[in-house]
Predict the 3D structure of the following.
Amino acid sequence: MVKALQLVRSLVFIVQMYLAMVVLAIVFTPFAIVRRDMALRACHTYCRYVRWSAAWMIGLRSEVRGEVPQGEVLIAAKHQSFFDILIIFGALPRPRFIMKKQLKYAPILGWYALRLGCVPVDRGKRGKAIREMVAAVRDGTVEPGQLIIYPQGTRVAPGAHLPYKVGTAVLYEQLGQDCVPVATNVGVFWPRHSLLRKPGTAVVEFLPAIPAGRAPRVFLEELERVIEDRSDALMHEAGFEKAAQ
């Protein structure tokens, strides 16, 4: 009975979440066409709204830990669900995403992503994707701020393992910037392939920066270690236990 009630709440939450996206897009679009910073304000407003509505509608609170970067850095984040995107984006002052190319055709999301300066890449073609990322940075397509990339390339369920892709190391080397790893336990409460949203505290944690200048392979190994170790700890804190390997 309790689970059925939570599922009903989850469905209502999901419906209103997407309705709110449409409403905010309609309200902000005329201003975002003229001023790019209004597109950013619209997205930040939406992120705050979803976090607020999740807390009282389904009992899913959210928390940002660690020192949130303010300057120009590369951010490499664990990705478990749509919710971690919203928490990370909402916490940063000038975020931009490396995103899969198909998303630029998504209604509302695609236009706003491009307006914000996000970089669409073809993740199915590794070499081409890396070249596109590097070219976007070099030709000024990506504005100053926090460039966010998901090293595993897609959402990964809690307890599952997916290797970290070399594109993140290439981008780190080309940018010559510090990289801030980000860990999360969001997938424990907001599963990839389920409509059920569970109550609890979803955490996104900004970890100490990896300084610029490391060898790409050394960097990638350190990145995977710190993100996975901390994400495992956050999931354990949330009551999730990984199956024995």
User: Anything to note?
Assistant: The radius of gyration is 18 Å.
